[in-house]
């Protein structure tokens, strides 16, 4: 018999409200839930494949242990016993720092898992906690630490009359500025209202198509462009003088430094039309409301922190922060009530604290310990060497920069454990693969999408929305699955550890349920979880009485738009020769710049085992401008070698008139270990291999150059892709 349940899609971080048809205990169909007040019935092609994901023949349904290069089924109890023993031994011999956790993409939708992983690490005393956020946009939190956070938050998208997207494509990625909850509809509504969208991107993206102004710039020149925009705003006195006087420091310093970024200089350096640049600055600054936000593109190009800082500077110049008496767009639901004040918060330390990594003088920082240094930490012998790695919902072999180094690191580990649903490129090298329950098999809460408020600015639900979902189907018969939190709890039990979860000591004898843990995560929430559970379609728990409070009398804190480190970085940019196409190293021996991008049908390395999602592309094409392809004597479908100064990968050429000349646009997280390179038409290739983690990296966050990578392209004998 068929029944319908509402649920939260956890294929991606967007958490769409969906309706799932369940027949004979199995999910058979997913559609959008029109009664959901946040998503209005939206789903994407990935979400509609949840049944295929859950019942994928390739899905790992019981723990796997590697015995002489073969993986064998092992009972979860036994896997936990053995892993706990090995960890105990390693900690006794090498200390707790020898154990590292990498909590990645699929930690986000499972907050009990990520919190339990952190509790476990605390209990063993290891500071080596890494997340994929550190190879994503670590410059965001670091820039906020330097500039300061406006306690009440930014202008909302819903009543803005302009928005500027810098290297983000939210319509596809559900990230980067437009609230990621049916962003296409939100953008459509905004444009209909008259919103002026500005996009800065070397590609004419789905968002750029809709933009009032598109600056199709050279990649890697975002600090230059944003400094140029700040300069125009200052020169033309388009800034919010009153706000700057009351709430910002550093105006005169900023003014002096950006004065060198004249429209002529920026136009030449970033190769954008000068008049269009000036129009972009005016359009943004002359509007009443709206933010500038940046995505992964410029964050992965050199100087991501500086880009994020200049984004904040432009917003502050224009006073785009909520003021006293305005309605708080989202005072939170499943988190304690947020009653913002119209003031800057005290600035936390941005870097130089906490754990010191053994390479590149990196420390803990507001963006977290750098996962780009984790392979080094595994390979570098000596005191403190990382011997055990637990990856939670991540795929280092697909996603870490410098894949060949990562490959060596994965093999060098004494204990390599991954919690994954499939035999990923990382799982194939792991000692243990622990498969978890999937999204429809375990309860869910929307709380993580509230929590990302603290990660960036202008992220998270634009209204106080929340939803809970119980488990709606049983895992496949005969499977032996652990939720992510159960894995860490099971280890702790065996290792005799007392875990503290979200501030409370856990009962280490009587195992809690996922719902118990959710209750703990929601302690002190503005709306009790039980209340949220009453609304199967999700609900907006509005309270118009929650308005922005006035500034505290004693508050002297200000936003800093002339931070000394960032101004020094801008001066460094100025000192570079204009002929440099993309950042640090003046090098004209490379003809192209490879830039990052997302593809709609897959999610990082996920989705490639689901036929409908790879019907267009099993691989990640090397998208290039048709003019460039012709100039190089190439044709669509040709296999080429793409070489950086660090490594080479194969690519399959595809024509894309939306890509700027001089640029190759290619998605990440494809490919596998080097012995599979020839299968480029089936598995694509790994762009991460082109990155050198030791060069052109951000000295505060460790973020290496993962976009705007100088490369050369060479046609190769097509038989290299023979298999
Ligand atoms: N060159 C280059 N490198 C990049 C990027 C880039 O643009 N260019 N982007 C970076 C960014 S932004 C990020 S966030 C990282 C991503 O880095 P990672 O998170 O390390 O990579 P993913 O491919 O998302 O890995 C997710 C893994 O989780 C598994 N999985 C799927 N569903 C579940 C589940 O329900 N539970 C569990 N436990 N596992 C599940 C998938 O099978 C997959 O193996 O990559 C970064 N690397
Ligand atoms: N369908 C789908 N959705 C996803 C993902 C996915 O793999 N597939 N991944 C998820 C993840 S992990 C994340 S972090 C988010 C990221 O979300 P976004 O940041 O929106 O990611 P992209 O869509 O890649 O958009 C980045 C844009 O930056 C541009 N770009 C590249 N280099 C530069 C540069 O130097 N300067 C400028 N100005 N632009 C540049 C690219 O052309 C691209 O259009 O998306 C998430 N959503
Ligand atoms: S955007 Fe697609 S994959 Fe992401 S939550 Fe929504 S339906 Fe699921
Ligand atoms: Mo990401």
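-> sequence recovered:
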């Amino acid at each position: 018999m068929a029944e319908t349940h509402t649920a939260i899609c956890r294929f991606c971080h967007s958490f769409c409200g969906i309706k799932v048809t369940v027949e004979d205990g199995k999910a058979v169909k997913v559609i959008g839930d029109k009664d959901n007040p946040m998503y209005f019935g939206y789903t994407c092609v990935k979400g509609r494949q949840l049944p295929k994901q859950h019942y994928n023949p390739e899905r790992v349904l019981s723990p796997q242990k590697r015995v002489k290069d073969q993986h064998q089924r092992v009972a979860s109890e036994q896997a936990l016993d053995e892993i706990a023993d090995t960890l105990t031994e390693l900690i006794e011999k090498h200390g707790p720092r020898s154990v590292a956790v990498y909590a990645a993409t699929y930690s986000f939708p499972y907050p009990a898992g990520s919190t339990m992983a952190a509790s476990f690490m605390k209990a063993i005393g290891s500071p080596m906690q890494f997340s994929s956020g550190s190879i994503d946009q670590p410059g965001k939190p670091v820039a906020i630490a330097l500039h300061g956070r406006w306690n009440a938050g930014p202008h909302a998208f819903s009543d803005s009359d302009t928005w500027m997207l810098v290297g983000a494509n939210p319509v596809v990625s559900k990230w980067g500025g437009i609230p990621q909850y049916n962003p296409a509809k939100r953008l459509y509504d905004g444009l209909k209202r008259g919103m002026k969208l500005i996009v800065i991107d070397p590609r004419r993206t789905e968002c750029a198509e809709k933009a009032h102004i598109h600056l199709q710039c050279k990649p890697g020149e975002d600090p230059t462009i944003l400094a140029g925009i700040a300069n125009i705003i200052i020169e033309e006195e388009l800034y919010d003088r009153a706000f700057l006087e009351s709430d910002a420091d550093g105006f005169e310093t900023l003014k002096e430094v950006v004065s060198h970024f004249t429209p002529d200089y920026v136009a030449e350096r970033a190769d954008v039309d000068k008049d269009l640049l000036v129009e972009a600055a005016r359009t943004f600054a002359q509007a009443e409301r709206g933010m500038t936000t940046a995505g992964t593109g410029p964050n992965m190009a050199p100087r991501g922190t500086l880009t994020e800082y200049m984004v904040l500077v432009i917003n502050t110049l224009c006073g785009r922060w909520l003021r006293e008496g305005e309605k708080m767009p989202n005072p939170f639901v499943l988190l304690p009530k947020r009653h913002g004040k119209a003031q800057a918060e005290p600035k936390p330390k941005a870097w130089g604290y906490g754990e010191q990594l053994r390479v590149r003088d990196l420390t803990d920082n507001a963006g977290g310990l750098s996962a780009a240094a984790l392979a080094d930490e595994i390979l570098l012998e000596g005191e403190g060497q990382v011997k055990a790695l637990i990856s939670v919902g991540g795929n280092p072999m697909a996603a870490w920069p410098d894949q060949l180094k990562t490959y060596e690191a994965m093999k060098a580990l004494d204990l390599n454990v991954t919690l994954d649903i499939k035999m990923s490129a990382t799982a194939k090298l792991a000692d243990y693969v622990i498969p978890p329950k999937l999204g429809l098999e375990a309860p869910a809460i929307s709380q993580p999408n509230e929590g990302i408020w603290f990660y960036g600015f202008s992220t998270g639900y634009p209204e106080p929305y929340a939803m809970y979902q119980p488990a709606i189907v049983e895992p496949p018969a005969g499977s032996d699955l652990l939720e992510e939190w159960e894995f860490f709890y099971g280890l702790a039990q065996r290792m005799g550890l007392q875990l503290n979860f979200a501030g409370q000591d856990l009962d280490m004898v009587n195992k809690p349920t996922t719902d118990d843990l959710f209750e703990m995560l929601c302690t002190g929430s503005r709306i009790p979880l039980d209340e949220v559970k009453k609304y199967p379609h999700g609900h907006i728990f509005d309270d118009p009485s929650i308005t922005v409070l006035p500034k505290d009398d004693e508050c002297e804190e200000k936003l800093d738009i002339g931070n000394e480190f960032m101004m020094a970085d801008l001066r460094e940019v100025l000192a570079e020769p204009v002929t440099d196409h993309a950042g640090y190293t003046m090098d004209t021996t490379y003809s192209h710049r490879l830039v990052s991008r997302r593809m709609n049908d897959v999610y990082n390395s996920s989705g490639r085992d689901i036929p409908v999602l790879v019907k267009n592309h099993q691989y990640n094409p090397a998208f290039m401008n048709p003019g460039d392809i012709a100039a190089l004597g190439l044709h669509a479908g040709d296999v080429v070698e793409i070489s950086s100064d660090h490594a080479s990968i194969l690519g399959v050429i595809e024509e894309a008139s939306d890509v700027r000349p001089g640029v190759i646009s290619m998605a990440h997280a494809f490919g596998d270990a080097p012995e599979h390179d020839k299968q480029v038409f089936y598995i694509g290739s790994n762009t991460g291999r082109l990155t050198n983690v030791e060069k052109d990296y951000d000295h505060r966050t460790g973020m290496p150059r993962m976009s705007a990578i100088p490369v050369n392209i060479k046609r190769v004998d097509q038989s290299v892709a023979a298999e």
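DSSP finds 24 helices and 30 strands in the chain.
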